[in-house]
Design goal:
Distance between the termini: 72 Å
Structural class: alpha+beta
Order of helices and strands: EEEEHEHEHHEHEEHHEEEEEEEHHHH
Helix content: 25-40%
Largest sheet: 7 strands, mixed
Number of strands: 16
Radius of gyration: 25 Å
């Protein structure tokens, strides 16, 4: 039975199933209330929705169990004249490719690049940053509204605190059951979005014990924008991540979803994913179609079931709040190519002989799994810990490798636990600290059935001689189109190359001739 609050004098509602299998709550005569699940995708730029959400968004839309929302953190205005075009491209892609309602597309309106070369993720104080577009507060081009203005009738300043507040507010407003987020890759805006969304989620989990979405993260570069150009190879291969060793994840943690069958089609003329890439004309993303499109998509699951979110923590020294901030690490400079770590973990003080964190739950808990992440110098660093329980149950001993990856331990469930303690018993090397600690129930929640059905189980393409011939032709046609485009670029590429025509509605033939002449001289 479902309950609702409405203007009518009803107290309970019954559920019925629509023809397409979607559950709906029937509240009052002639009135239906949808109870579909929500999926929220958070990405920085207009085209990242395909790289991060891509096929999964389309599959969920086709399945009918989810309604989709997307948040863009920037206006894509590194080239200011392109902002309006890029936002329009995004709307057309999401409504046509993912069947999304336009009202479910949110533009936070922050800058795509900053004048001083820094980044809003590191902004401090009251003075807002100036974006590459010369703006100091959120905005949206004509025909759109930025999120803060839509909700409050005012704009947000380009400050980290405002950026975080807007992200947190949209997360709390949508309250999605499934949250898809760009992961920490090579782009500063991707890094900032990844870290700040984690920060916001960590706060929301501590503030609201009833909100525990499924959180999936995906890299937009490794395996996608910088993937292998193998889409036309036979036999077709699953996505390969070349830089997994540099992440907090391992291959065993990969969660692979099948690309929708129509989007996995090697016949680009009828492939809706390829057509969606073509709609992002400013980015010419279609040129990398054989890198971006694959037969599967790789995500990594972040657990929201950490029992620490509703516990109280005290430490013999150091800051134990790092253990439950939902961030596996923090970055001192998102603009640097290599990861620059900043303080992000619980680390007892040098003279602390106790080296202990005490945990008190608000009610008795059953504990059966522990996951811990730690960071060190990469040498012979070593941490040994012991977890004890107030019930008198046998302590759990756990060695933690400070390499940034998950250290995982399962054990016979400890029931009725009200208090427990983490104590570091051995410490060698240079260790930044334990960056995240997850105290978990005995069993991990299973994937929702709608997602379970979408898991990747291998290529479904039936390869025949005719199929092989057609794939060779498709590969040759894409290569030819790329060559033509590089010699005869579209007007957006020309406007970037020749800033004096950036604001012109039409690009004269003269500039196309100039471009070709430059290419010839450069050969």
């Amino acid at each position: 039975m479902l309950y609702c609050i409405c203007l009518y004098d009803c107290r309970e509602v019954q559920t019925s199933f629509a023809e397409e299998g979607r559950e709906r709550a029937v509240c009052c005569p002639g009135m239906e209330v949808s109870v579909k699940q929500k999926v929220l995708l958070i990405v920085p730029h207009q085209d990242d929705e395909l790289f991060v959400g891509g096929g999964l968004l389309r599959s969920l839309a086709k399945g009918g169990e989810y309604e989709s929302y997307v948040v863009y953190t920037t206006n894509g205005d590194f080239f200011p004249h392109e902002a309006e075009v890029r936002l329009g491209e995004a709307v057309r892609v999401l409504t046509a490719f993912a069947g999304m309602e336009e009202s479910h597309i949110f533009f936070l309106g922050y800058g795509d690049g900053w004048k001083d070369g820094g980044h809003i993720y590191h902004q401090e104080g009251d003075e807002p940053l100036v974006s590459m577009a010369g703006k100091t507060e959120t905005y949206a081009p004509e025909g759109h509204s930025d999120y803060r203005y839509m909700r409050s009738g005012r704009h947000s300043a380009y400050r980290r605190a405002d950026f975080k507040r807007d992200l947190k507010d949209v997360l709390a407003e949508v309250r999605a059951d499934l949250v898809l987020v760009v992961d920490f890759d090579k782009h500063a805006d991707h890094r900032a979005a990844s870290l700040l969304v984690e920060e916001c989620l960590g706060e929301l989990f501590r503030e609201d014990a009833s909100y525990r979405p499924l959180v999936l993260k995906r890299f937009a570069y490794d395996g996608v924008w910088k993937g292998r150009a193998d889409f036309f190879e036979l036999p077709r291969r699953a996505t390969e991540l070349a830089e997994l060793s540099q992440t907090p994840y391992t291959a065993e943690e990969e969660l692979r979803f099948a690309m929708p069958e129509d989007c996995a089609s090697p016949y680009l003329s009828r492939n809706p994913f390829y057509r969606a890439l073509r709609r992002h004309r400013t980015q010419e993303a279609w040129q990398k179609a054989d890198e971006i499109i694959n037969i599967d998509e790789v995500f990594f699951r972040r657990s929201a079931d950490n029992l620490l979110y509703t516990a109280s923590l005290t430490a013999s020294s150091g800051n134990p709040e790092y253990l439950r901030d939902f961030k596996l690490f923090d970055c001192g400079d998102v603009t640097e190519r290599e990861l620059v770590l900043k303080e992000c973990g619980w680390k007892p003080e040098e003279g602390d002989a106790e080296r202990t964190v005490r945990i008190r739950f608000e009610k008795p808990r059953t504990v059966g799994r522990i996951a811990a992440y730690a960071r060190g110098s990469g040498g012979v660093d070593r941490l040994e810990t012991v977890f004890s329980f107030d019930t008198g149950a046998e302590p759990v001993r756990m060695e933690i490798r400070p390499d940034g990856k998950r250290n995982f331990c399962t054990f016979a469930p400890r029931e009725g636990v009200r208090e427990m303690a983490l104590r570091i018993t051995a410490w060698e090397g240079v260790v930044w600290g334990i960056t995240e600690l997850e105290i978990l129930p005995p069993e991990e929640k299973e994937l929702p059935e709608a997602l379970e059905r979408l898991l990747f189980h291998g290529d479904t393409l039936r390869v025949t001689g005719l199929v092989k011939l057609r794939i060779k032709m498709e590969k040759a046609v894409l290569a030819l189109k790329r060559k033509i485009s590089r010699w005869l670029p579209n007007r957006y590429t020309l406007r970037r190359h020749y800033p004096e025509i950036a604001r012109r509605e039409r690009v004269s033939v003269r500039y196309r001739v100039l471009y070709i002449a430059e290419r010839l001289r450069a050969r």
